[in-house]
Amino acid sequence: MLKRLEQIAARYEALTSRLSSPDALADREEYKTLSKERAELEELVHTYRAYQKTQEEMNAAFAEAEGESGEMRDLLVAEGYACKERLSALERDLKTLLLPKDKNDDRGCTLEIRAGAGGEEAALFAYELYRMYMGCCERHHLKWEVASLSETELGGVKEAIVNVTGKGAYKRLKYESGVHRVQRVPETESQGRIHTSTATVAVLPEAEDVDVNIDEKDIRIDLFRSSGAGGQKVNKTETAIRITHFPTGIVVTCQDERSQLQNREKAYRVLRARLYEYYSEQATGKEAANRRNLVGTGDRSERIRTYNFPQNRITDHRIGLSLHNTEAFMAGEIDEMTEALARAETEARLADASSGDTD
Fold first, then answer.
1. Residue 92, number of CB atoms within 10 A of its CB
2. Among 46, 217, 303, 344, whose Cα sits 20 to 30 Å from the Cα of 9?
3. For the whole model, what pTM was predicted?
4. What pLDDT shows up at residue 350?
5. Who contacts 74 (Cβ-Cβ below 8 Å, separation ≥6)?
6. Total Cβ atoms within 10 A of residue 152
């Protein structure tokens, strides 16, 4: 690990030197590329320097203690052990920073919510999840743009597809993919019995144009009239868009906008996100990353999280964490849960990483 850190520190110094040269300053594209690379290394290098400094202070304290006695020796030994504790924490930070980054973390994402088992109650729960994520995005100043929304007569949601844009949108929401289960007494339940319903959530990283090339001959675009819950929401003109991608069988429908052009743009964004995920899975061959496994079938027995309203408890089954703040959570205050999930993933990756690096 230390040898690798030395190489990274040397690269950081070389980049710093290059960025101050007239040639780099004159070349806008090179300057931008080098600045980005340097910024990505900065935290790691600063942490490594703090590690080196702390190690020197620890060695100096223990060395001085050898030539002292009494109270002074005790103080120097205590200082040495304090440095040793800091050193252990810094070493852990360095190992975490050395873990490969998820290249999609800084991107926007496509959020898909669908009602699962439970009929109208499942659709109502899907709508509450829709509102929950909207609240979360508002808190973090992420742009919420509805691509498609299929509602029920009672105000539930059969399916919602939303484009979320802003730096770190995918990183913030990626742990939400899976089956969400709710346990509560529906308003329509006259005998007070608790019902269990589900909704599925999928979070797909936004694909850039350079990531996915959509050949026009591989798709078919159909126009139709958008539909809603009724009344004024029903469009009289063919503004809704359905895009079918023949090689993969992926179908995307967007009908939320009144303009055909806007629906077309949104449909293409959703299609690119799904194709990016599809081809990424093909390239990696990781069955665990398969979207069908990620979100499950919507069956009540499958879940990543349970929302128990009578007990005011939300439990994430992946890490066994329970929170007792249902009202705030459903309003979009989900950071405590998502940050715990991110920490758990880091812990798992650190455990898998080699611990025998002694160079």
1. 12
2. 344
3. 0.72
4. 85
5. none
6. 17
